[in-house]
Amino acid sequence: MTDIESLLRPSAKGSFRQVFFAGKGGVGKTTMACLAAVHAARQGYRTLLLTTDPAAHTGSVLGKNVTDQVEAIDGVPGLFAAKIDQKQATEDYKEGILHDARAKFDEDTIRTMTEELASPCTEEMAAFQRFIDLSSTPGFDVIVFDTAPTGHTLRLLELPMDWSEQIRLKATGATEAMSAGDRQQKDRFDHAVSAMRDPELTTFSFVMYPESTPILEAYRASQELAAIGVATQLVVANLLIAEEQATTPFFQKRRQLQLGYLDDMKRRFAGAALLMVPIMDSDIRGIDKLDTLDKIVFGGMA
Questions:
Q1: In a domain, 117, yes or no
Q2: How many CB atoms lie within 10 A of CB 205?
Q3: How many domains does the chain have?
Q4: CB 147: neighbour CB atoms within 10 A?
Q5: pLDDT per residue over 212-245, tens digit each?
Q6: 264-288: per-residue pLDDT in tens?
Q7: Of 36, 92, 148, 282, which is the most buried if we count CB atoms within 10 A?
Q8: Nearest of 40, 39, 43 to residue 17 by alpha carbon
Q9: Helix (H, G, I), strand (E, B) or coil at 202
């Protein structure tokens, strides 16, 4: 079992593994997440592919319709997919809070709460709640996340830590002990944080193509993740020009530039495994194309 293959299989602890694909917009996160999910399912692991990016085209890459409900993907036994509907998640989150509040407070208070809930923070929290709900879906060996561009992903991962601390501080010095609801919420957040920090349960990966801007953005984000205890274990170098493709002076020069950037990636992410993915002569759309890319990228991995 290669280092990379071990990062994409179920945890040695007998639990499922989470695999996150993050990076700058446009580097191929969705394609790489779909590739990893198809590969895991083809290895016999019951796999769930989730997208937290409202702009992602997961369904287009798979060639299948993907909704906010967990559904099987035809053509790949054991593969399921869903996406987080940000608008619906936010409405559900707001309604859940207001439903409980209506039994306790007057109309003026409810009106104030409704206004306060109309904020970006509410949307972020709703997305994370839905993220926890979907990632807690039972019966899966591997859960692959196609994430939003870097900044949004960092905020999503930092949310449980921020909110868990806020819940703790709210209870500190209070006249009453932490409420059962707060305790349950804090336990859920703490469990999510613990799983993300455990390299046997979570593989965090950055996707980039071999150029300066995506490498620098991924490196800075990896440093921020390291500060909250989440290690980058895998980096994906996408759209590489193979030696046999460099048949003209232009492509020969581009390949030499890429090799230099590959060295930079290896230096910056010295502790992570490197997965190299070649540029293809057509878009990766549909299971057949993903299977072809799977054989090219993982063909020697058993």
A1: no
A2: 28
A3: 1
A4: 26
A5: 999 999 999 999 889 888 899 999 999 999 999 9
A6: 999 999 999 999 999 999 999 999 9
A7: 36
A8: 40
A9: strand
* DSSP-derived pairing of the beta strands 71-72 and 273-278: unpaired
Among candidates 135, 77, 147, which has minimal Cα distance to 287? Answer: 77
Residues of 227-261 as b/e, b for ≥16 C-beta within 10 angstroms? eeebbbbbbbbbebbeeeebeeeeeeebbeebeeb
Question: How do beta strands 79-83 and 232-240 pair?
Answer: unpaired
Looking up residue 79, the CATH number of its domain turns out to be 3.40.50.300
Residue at 55: amino acid letter: A
Q: Please check whether residue 256 lies inside any domain of the structure.
A: yes
Tokens of 49: 């592919």
Q: Which two tokens stand for residue 297?
A: 């990228």
**Structural domain contains residue 124:** no
Q: What is the DSSP letter of 237?
A: E
Sequence letter at residue 181:
G
Kindly state the tokens that stand for 300. 């020697």
Q: Tell the residue number behind the tokens 């193509």, with chain if given.
A: 209
